[in-house]
Amino acid sequence: MGTIVISTLFFKLFGMDSWRWLAIMWALVPAFNIYNFATCPIVPIVEEGQGMGIRQLGKRPLFWVSICLMVCAGASELAMAQWASAYAEAALGLSKALGDLLGPCMFAVTMGISRIIYGKYGEKINLTGFMLGSGALCVICYLMASLSSSPVIGLVGCILCGFSVGIMWPGTISISSKKFPTGGTAMFALLAMAGDLGGSVGPAIVGRVTQYAGDDIRAGMGVGLIFPIVLIAMLIIMSKATERHD
C-alpha cells in the first residue's frame, strides 16, 4: 500500500517521464536488505542433514497438492491485484492516480486486514476452514468483477478480493509445514517458486484473454475465476487425505 501511495505521489509531483528515478529510489530497498541479510542471524528450519530433499518431497502426492495450492494462491492474488487499477480505470473511467488508489491500494488494505485478523485470532480459527471460506469469497469477488453490470459493484469485488486472498499464501505455507515438518529449505523454496509461478501466469492469462476479447477486462476476470475454484478443490483433497491419515 505504501508503495502505491508513494509512487502515485511521485508521479503527481514529477510526472510519468520521471519513472526511471522512481525505479532507482525503490532499488534502495533491496540494496538495504543486502545489509539486513548479511548481518541478521537466521535460525535453521531443521537440523543440518535431517531436512527432506527434492526427490523425497516429489514422492509425496500431498506435496504436489501443496504446490497446486501455492500456484493458485499466487494466481488468485496477483491476477486481481495487477489488473485492479486497469479495471478501475476502464469500468469507472477514473484517472491513473485514482485507479491505483481505489484498485490495488484498497486491495492491499483489505489483504492486510485479513492477515491481521488471522494473526490476532489464529489460534481460535481452523486454518483449513478459514481458507475454504476465503476461497469461496474469492470466487464471489471474481464473479462480481466479471459479471456485474454495475462498475461500482465490480470495483467492490476487486477490493474485497484482497481480503479473500490474504490468507492463501501464508496459509498454504503453514499447512505444508504441518504436513511436512522436516521439509526444510527445499520445501519452502519449491513452494515459493510455485507461488511466483502462479503470480506470473495468473495475470498473464487474464491479460491475454482480455486482449482476445477486444480489451474487455471483465472477460479476463471471468477466466481468472478458475484459480480460486481449483484452490478450493485442492484444499478439500488435502483435508480428506488428512482425515484418512488420522
Would you kindly provide a written description of the structure presented here, covering whatever features stand out?
This protein is an all-alpha fold. The chain folds into two domains: 43 residues, no CATH class; 200 residues, Up-down Bundle (Growth Hormone, Chain: A), CATH 1.20.1250. Helix content is 81%, strand content 0%. It is built from twelve helices and no strands. Helix 4 runs antiparallel to helix 12 and helix 7 runs antiparallel to helix 8. The longest helix is centred in the last third of the chain and has 29 residues. It starts with a helix and ends with a helix. 37% of the residues are buried.
Topology of helices and strands:
Elements lengths: L1 H13 L4 H21 L14 H5 L2 H21 L2 H9 L3 H26 L5 H21 L3 H15 L2 H12 L4 H29 L4 H8 L1 H20 L1
Helix pairs in contact: 1-6, 4-8, 4-9, 4-10, 4-12, 5-6, 5-8, 6-8, 7-8, 7-11, 7-12, 10-11
CATH topology category name of the largest domain: Growth Hormone, Chain: A
The helix tally amounts to 12
**What's the structural domain tally?**
2
Average pLDDT confidence is 87
CATH architecture tag of the largest domain? Up-down Bundle
- The ordered H/E elements are HHHHHHHHHHHH
Query: Class by helix and strand content?
Result: mainly alpha
Oligomer: single chain
Helix content: over 70%
Report the span from N to C terminus: 41 Å
CATH class of the largest domain: Mainly Alpha
